[in-house]
């Protein structure tokens, strides 16, 4: 019997490869999206779709009913959106996961999300998301990647490029396909 995995945020740069890899590895993949038509255009008819907003606890609870696990891949671009979408959305995912007795929950966070960096408001919000997962009572895995190679084009705007420069610590670039493979393995393992 196939495990059902709900992906909250499954159509973007990191979510889409995860959805595709889970499907390829034999999972039943549910995509939770505000816009099912747009999600289906990006991903095709190979997935189950649930329409809703992460701010709607009932919608997430319904989408995660009878699921084995939930992968949370929310992102935003402003502090206000981070608080609203990432933090409140993650809290609602945790509540839904507890209500439906999920077997596992996974979250993408970031390499810089640690206690020493809580002076940064974005890090503090992501830390609170991680804390919600850690304190949920649901078995979990938090992925804390550095930089994704598929994000490199974002460093170029017109005729300008952002130069990362000399770093005190070596930057380790990650393939989004390798990340998707790790998420799939997290749901394949029995522990």
Spell out the key features of this protein:
single chain, 191 residues, alpha/beta, six-stranded parallel beta sheet, 6 helices, 38% helix, globular
What does this structure look like?
- It is a single chain.
- With 191 residues, the protein is α/β, with parallel strands linked by helices.
- The protein contains six helices and ten strands, in the order E-H-E-H-E-H-E-H-E-H-E-E-E-E-E-H.
- The chain has helices spanning 15-24, 36-43, 57-63, 79-99, 121-134, 176-188, and strands at residues 4-8, 28-33, 48-51, 69-72, 104-108, 140-143, 147-148, 156-157, 160-161, 173-174.
- Strands 3-2-1-4-5-6 form a six-stranded parallel sheet, with helices on both faces. It has a two-stranded parallel sheet with strand order 7-10. It has a two-stranded antiparallel sheet with strand order 8-9.
- Strand 5 (104-108), helix 5 (121-134) and strand 6 form a beta-alpha-beta unit.
- Helix 1 packs across helix 6 (176-188).
- The longest helix is centred in the middle third of the chain and has 21 residues, at 79-99.
- It is globular, with a radius of gyration of 17 Å.
- The protein starts with a strand and ends with a helix.
- The model has no long low-confidence stretch (mean pLDDT 91).
Structural class: alpha/beta
Query: What is the strand arrangement across the widest sheet?
Result: 3-2-1-4-5-6
| Quantity of strands, as a count | 10
Quaternary class:
single chain
């Amino acid at each position: 019997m196939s495990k059902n995995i709900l992906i909250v945020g499954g159509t973007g740069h990191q979510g889409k490869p995860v959805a595709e890899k889970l499907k390829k590895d034999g999972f039943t993949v549910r995509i939770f999206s505000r816009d099912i038509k747009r999600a289906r255009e990006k991903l095709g008819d190979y997935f189950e779709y649930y329409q809703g907003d992460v701010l709607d606890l009932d919608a997430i609870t319904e989408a995660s009913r009878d699921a084995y696990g939930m992968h949370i891949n929310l992102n935003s671009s402003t502090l206000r959106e981070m608080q609203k979408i990432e933090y409140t959305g993650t809290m609602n995912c945790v509540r839904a996961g507890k209500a439906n007795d999920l077997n596992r929950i996974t979250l993408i966070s970031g390499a810089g999300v640690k206690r020493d960096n809580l002076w940064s408001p974005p890090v503090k919000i992501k830390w609170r998301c991680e804390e919600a997962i850690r304190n949920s009572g649901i078995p979990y895995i938090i992925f804390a990647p550095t930089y994704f190679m598929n994000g490199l084009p974002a460093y170029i705007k017109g005729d300008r490029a952002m130069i990362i420069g000399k770093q005190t610590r070596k930057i380790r670039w990650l393939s989004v396909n390798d990340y998707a493979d790790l998420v799939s393995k997290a749901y394949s393992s029995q522990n």
